[in-house]
């Protein structure tokens, strides 16, 4: 069945829609705010969902913000009572994975300074390179020397990523055949601001994989490992009583559906209604809305 706009449902249908879920898991960028900029009414809508007794959690593919920076953004939009544990993003999933599968192991980080800060806070021993000087082939050789091997290379969105960092990640993977390649945010496109979509980090990961003949373990959306992790973290027993809200077809809608959640696409990110209609069946949402703010209107309708 074609996705329906939540405000085109009859009042009776809007009531049963609201009654059909207990938990909302929402993407952040493009839904709750823009990477650069804000979405009117998003904070108020989150508060309205909570006031209606819904548990509201957030899952983002962006770890280039620390938890504190996430909290500042939730404060800015007036969303009340959002806790650190209410937000999952790749570096947090990576920390969880490392604690479980590689306790005490040393890793090489091809991630942002903010992500590295999160590693440090969680007691993960990591190596990283931040080189600002002009490189020559001789200095490159020095930087690529491996003193100690690592058990995993961590890859995520990293706006300062440089050639030497990538080359060293490849060296680490080549030198230790048991070294795992673990990836967080690997979106193809990053919607940066209105009318400004830039390439995501997908192709940089492909580069590492191609030169090392290695597959990566993905812990960002739409990875099924992340889906299982979310069910564990938030103790989700009945996935059909949970709705996933996002602005992307694959990372959000297809991911939510593969977890057994209901799905809602918002058009406040980079996609249009036409993009949604053109999507393959597995990425078609159950519902759509212009933005999260449509929930404010919907609650007014059902309370009448
Ligand atoms: Mg998004």
From TrEMBL:
Give Gene Ontology CC terms.
cytoplasm
**Cofactor binding, note field:** Divalent metal ions. Mg(2+) is the most effective.
Catalytic residues (UniProt)? 27 (proton donor), 29 (proton donor)
**Organism domain of life:** Eukaryota
Annotated coiled-coil segments of the chain = none
Residues that hold Mg(2+) according to the record = 27, 29, 247
Please tell me the species this chain comes from. Answer: Drosophila virilis
Give the protein name, as stated in the record: 4-nitrophenylphosphatase
Keyword terms, alphabetized: Hydrolase, Magnesium, Metal-binding
Q: Which SUPFAM superfamilies match?
A: HAD-like
State whether keyword Metal-binding applies. yes
A single Gene Ontology molecular function, please? metal ion binding
Essential cofactor(s) = Mg(2+)
Q: Where does the chain bind substrate?
A: 60-62, 221
**Family classification:** Belongs to the HAD-like hydrolase superfamily.
Report which gene this protein is encoded by: Dvir\GJ18537
């Amino acid at each position: 069945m074609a996705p329906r706009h939540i405000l085109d449902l009859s009042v009776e249908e809007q009531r049963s829609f609201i009654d059909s879920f207990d938990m909302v898991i929402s993407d952040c960028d493009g839904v709750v705010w823009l990477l650069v900029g804000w979405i009117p009414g998003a904070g108020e809508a989150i508060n309205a969902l909570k006031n209606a007794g819904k548990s509201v959690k957030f899952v983002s593919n962006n770890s280039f913000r620390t938890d504190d920076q996430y909290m500042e953004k939730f404060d800015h939009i007036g969303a009340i009572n959002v806790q650190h544990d209410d937000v999952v993003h790749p570096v947090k999933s990576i920390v969880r994975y490392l604690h479980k599968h590689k306790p005490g192991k040393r890793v090489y980080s091809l991630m942002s300074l903010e992500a590295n800060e999160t590693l440090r806070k969680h007691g993960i021993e990591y190596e990283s390179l931040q080189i600002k000087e002009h490189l020559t082939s001789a200095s490159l050789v020095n930087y690529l020397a491996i003193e100690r091997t690592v058990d995993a290379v961590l890859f995520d969105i990293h706006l300062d990523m440089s050639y030497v960092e990538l080359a060293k990640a490849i060296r680490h993977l080549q030198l230790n055949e048991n070294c795992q390649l673990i990836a967080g945010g690997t979106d193809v496109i990053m919607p940066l601001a209105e009318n400004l979509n830039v390439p995501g980090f997908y192709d940089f990961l492909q580069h590492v994989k191609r030169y090392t003949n290695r597959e990566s373990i993905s812990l960002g959306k739409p990875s099924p490992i992340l889906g299982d992790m979310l069910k564990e973290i938030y103790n989700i027993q009945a996935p059909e009583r949970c709705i996933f809200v996002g602005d992307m077809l694959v990372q959000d809608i297809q991911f939510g559906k593969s977890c057994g959640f209901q799905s809602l696409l918002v058009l406040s990110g980079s996609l249009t209604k036409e993009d949604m209609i053109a999507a393959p069946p597995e990425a078609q949402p159950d519902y759509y809305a212009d933005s999260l703010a449509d929930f404010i209107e919907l609650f007014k309708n059902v309370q009448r």
